Each structure stands twice: as C-alpha cells, then as structure tokens.
TrEMBL record:
This is Bifunctional protein FolD. The gene is folD. Keywords: Amino-acid biosynthesis, Histidine biosynthesis, Hydrolase, Methionine biosynthesis, Multifunctional enzyme, NADP, One-carbon metabolism, Oxidoreductase, Purine biosynthesis. Homodimer. Catalyzes the oxidation of 5,10-methylenetetrahydrofolate to 5,10-methenyltetrahydrofolate and then the hydrolysis of 5,10-methenyltetrahydrofolate to 10-formyltetrahydrofolate. It comes from Butyrivibrio hungatei. Belongs to the tetrahydrofolate dehydrogenase/cyclohydrolase family. HAMAP family: THF_DHG_CYH (MF_01576).
Length: 285
C-alpha cells in the first residue's frame, strides 16, 4: 500500500491564514508585528530565502524592515545594527540570514541578538529553554516537523510512546528536533555519521526523521513497514532537481505516511518563523 502524503504546502498555508486572522485582531488593538531581516552580501540562495520571508510577512500583515548590507560589512558594523534593533521597541523579531561572509563570526552574531527577538530560535538562551522545557523560541524547521506530525493525516499520528529515530545532529535541526520529540513523549534516538548499523537503527523507528543533507541516503532498507517518514533534506541531484534525503518512490511503498520534497518540511519553516514573530510581538507584553 502506498503511503499517505503529508502536504506541507497546504498545512503551512493553514498556519499562515490562522496568523493572518490573529494579526488582524492584534492590529485592532493597535499592535503591529515587525520583523527586521538582515542580509549581508549577495548569495543568490539567501536572496531567495529573504525575499520569501518578506513575502510571507506581507501576506500575513506584518511589517518587515529590510537591511541589505554589502558583503564587505565588518562584524562591528553588523553588531552595531543588531544593537540598535535590539533597543527598538517597534521591532519584535530580528533575523540575520546565514551564512555570513567569512570576516563575520556567526556565533558572535547569534549571541548578540536579544533572546526576546531571536525568532530563529538560535540563541543559546532559547536552545537552553527548549532543553529544560521552558518557554522560548524554537528553531523553525523542527517546530515545523512537529506541526506536520500533529496536523498531517487528519491528526491521527500519535507521537507519545513511539520510537522516533532522527538521522542528523545539527544545532538547527537534529538536536532541537530530539528535544521536541522528547517533549511530545516519544522515545528518541539520534543517529549520525558515526552510528553503527544505521539501517537497523532506522528500522526501529515508528517515526523516522531524516535531516542529513545527503540526497537519497534513506532507502527502503532503512524503513519499517508502516513507519511515518519525515524528510527534512533539501538537496539537488545530478540533474539539478530538488530532492530530499529519502528515496521517496521506494520508501512511499513501505511507509504509512511521508513528506515530499519539495512541498513537505520546506514551506513549514517559513510558517513557523511567522509564528515566532507573532509570539515575539505578544509574549513580552
Ligand atoms: N540560512 C538557512 N536557513 C536559515 C534559517 O533558518 N535562518 C537563518 N537566519 N538563516 C538561514
């Protein structure tokens, strides 16, 4: 039997429409949501990401402030701008698009953003809050995966008590994903490049989350019959076509539910960024 497809595009649209409605109500109370987006340099992929984030702001009814800085911008100049935005009461969220040019240290920049405006959820204070179950901003991609699991398949996917295997241990996806699945009461295993018998480990999963960044590395031999498979990977194959970490065509014959690439996790990341912006404008009042 072929798996149910979890439609991230449709679910992200529902979330954006919910936010649009809530934002209209906030506006009636005189509250505006404002996201400041900083792009340093002219990386084409980053330009596309930033454009899509600004477009989502416009759709929902947020104000977006755009700072496009030259690639030779010094770290000091960038930190000065972040400091100004941290101190502006009319700015709720600050997003510095990564990667940054080599003269700028990403960690220093992440640490400089006020944790209360860190809508990416990258600041150590927010990462720590997630680990101990306190309120804070959660990294957008793993937060989006949780929404896909909760809203996909008509809400019929149970997480509590399930075996969840996450492949990948990045700070942005794998690690926060493990904390979120733990918070949902799954039994969590994090596999990575040094994991022995990866196929066997993955085959234990009721919910398998692939976040490695290697095209087609998860095959039917990694998947238990009836598992839910979430593909976080965004890669390009030899033909330049967008593809995930999962061999979709063969895995969909075994899984009970699966996310496609594109149209799965990808659109959820921006929807969750928009959700974090709303939280930033309302949580600290
Ligand atoms: N570059 C690629 N993904 C992201 C993201 O989620 N946030 C930021 N700030 N930069 C990125």
């Amino acid at each position: 039997m072929s798996a149910q497809i979890i439609d991230g595009k449709a679910i992200s649209q529902i979330i954006k429409d919910e936010l649009k409605e809530k934002t209209a109500r906030l506006k009636e109370q005189g509250i505006e949501v404002t996201l400041a987006v900083i792009l340093v340099g002219e990386d084409p992929a980053s330009q596309v990401y930033v454009r899509n984030k600004k477009k989502a702001c416009e759709y929902i009814g947020y104000r977006s402030l755009s700072y496009e800085l030259p690639k030779e911008t010094s770290q000091e100049e960038l930190l000065k701008l972040i400091d100004e935005l941290n101190n502006r009461e009319d700015v709720n969220g600050i997003l510095v698009q990564m990667p940054l040019p080599s003269q700028i240290d990403e960690k220093t920049v992440i640490d400089a953003i006020s944790p209360k405006k860190d809508v990416d959820g990258f600041h150590p204070m927010n990462v720590g809050a997630l680990c101990i179950g306190e309120k804070g901003f959660v990294s957008c991609t793993p937060a989006g995966v949780i929404q896909l699991l909760k809203r996909g398949c008509d809400g019929k996917i149970d997480i509590a008590g399930k075996e969840c295997v996450i492949v990948g241990r990045s700070n942005i996806v794998g690690k926060p994903m493990s904390m979120l699945m733990l918070r949902e009461n799954a039994t969590v295993t994090v596999a990575h490049s040094k994991t022995k018998n990866l196929e066997e480990v993955c085959k234990r999963a009721d919910i398998l989350i692939a976040a490695v960044g290697k095209a087609g590395m998860i095959t039917k031999d990694h998947v238990k019959e009836g598992a839910v498979v979430i593909d976080v990977g965004i890669n390009r194959n030899e033909d330049g076509k967008l593809c995930g970490d999962v061999c979709f065509d063969e895995v969909k014959e075994i899984a009970s539910a699966i996310t496609p690439v594109p149209g799965g996790v990808g659109p959820m990341t921006i929807a969750m960024l928009m959700n974090n912006c709303y939280e930033a404008a309302t949580m600290f009042r």
